[in-house]
From TrEMBL:
<keyword id="KW-0238">DNA-binding</keyword>
<dbReference type="InterPro" id="IPR036590">
    <property type="entry name" value="SRAP-like"/>
</dbReference>
<comment type="similarity">
    <text>Belongs to the SOS response-associated peptidase family.</text>
</comment>
<keyword id="KW-0378">Hydrolase</keyword>
<dbReference type="GO" id="GO:0106300">
    <property type="term" value="P:protein-DNA covalent cross-linking repair"/>
</dbReference>
<dbReference type="GO" id="GO:0016829">
    <property type="term" value="F:lyase activity"/>
</dbReference>
<keyword id="KW-0645">Protease</keyword>
<keyword id="KW-0190">Covalent protein-DNA linkage</keyword>
<dbReference type="InterPro" id="IPR003738">
    <property type="entry name" value="SRAP"/>
</dbReference>
<dbReference type="Pfam" id="PF02586">
    <property type="entry name" value="SRAP"/>
</dbReference>
<dbReference type="GO" id="GO:0003697">
    <property type="term" value="F:single-stranded DNA binding"/>
</dbReference>
<dbReference type="GO" id="GO:0008233">
    <property type="term" value="F:peptidase activity"/>
</dbReference>
<dbReference type="GO" id="GO:0006508">
    <property type="term" value="P:proteolysis"/>
</dbReference>
<keyword id="KW-0456">Lyase</keyword>
<keyword id="KW-0227">DNA damage</keyword>
<protein>
    <recommendedName>
        <fullName>Abasic site processing protein</fullName>
        <ecNumber>3.4.-.-</ecNumber>
    </recommendedName>
</protein>
Length: 218
């Protein structure tokens, strides 16, 4: 799954990494981003709108969903295109969530040791997501997950779906709505680029969000 991540790259670095025209914006460094908060994401508000770095609520619940409907933070790659809850957003409301890395917890001697996972070259990751307008009119999103690959399998059975550079533009293309077409042109990042290390258990507290030392090896 993906339940906590860090984003500290500057807006200019993210814009350069995306390699697509992006409306001006800014990003506040966060080193321990929890669900149930607003997070930065790249999206189009509608098919004709320009790409913007927007603030989306991390919790997906479409405005048409009932009061007791779930508010997932993740959607699995296996079901996101076919589930009635997600498939409309997959076809028409895809987004990218920038991250410098994410956290997972590895059971060790009866305890859970947090690890930070990121690219070996420390370049930003672009996580595939979907969004929908919530009942209050704000956009809410879920990050798509896939079975863990490469060294990420050492820590957890699943990982966020990080896309390679050539997949970013088609993922955000509003004209691509067919599931098979999207699967043929969108690819995940090479797993060999991912590394990880143990970090302080201080990351267990979501309130610790502004401390860069959280990323230091434990």
């Amino acid at each position: 799954m993906c339940g906590r991540f860090a984003l500290y790259s500057t807006y200019p670095k993210l814009s350069e990494s995306l390699r697509l025209p992006l409306e001006a914006g800014e990003v506040t460094p966060r080193y321990n981003v929890p669900p149930g908060t607003f997070i930065s994401a790249v999206r189009r508000a509608d098919d004709e709108a320009p790409l913007v770095m927007d603030e989306l609520w991390w919790g997906y619940k479409p405005h048409w969903a009932g009061e007791k409907a779930p508010q997932p933070i993740n959607a699995t790659v296996e079901k996101v295109a076919t589930s009635n809850y997600f498939k409309g957003a997959f076809a028409h409301h895809r987004c990218l969530v920038p991250a410098d890395g994410w956290y997972e917890w590895l059971p060790v001697d009866g305890k859970k040791q947090p690890h930070f996972l990121c690219r070996e070259d420390r370049e930003p990751l672009w996580l595939a997501g979907i969004w929908a307008e919530r009942a209050d009119g704000t956009p809410g999103c879920a990050i798509i997950t896939e079975p863990a690959r490469g060294s990420a399998k050492e820590i957890h059975s699943r990982m966020p779906l990080a896309l390679d550079a050539e997949s970013l533009e088609p993922w955000l293309d509003p004209d691509l709505t067919d599931r098979e077409t999207i699967r043929n042109v969108v690819h995940h990042l090479d797993a060999e680029l991912i590394t990880h290390w143990p970090v302080s258990t201080r990351v267990n507290r979501p309130g610790n969000d502004e401390d860069a030392a959280l990323l230091n090896p434990a």
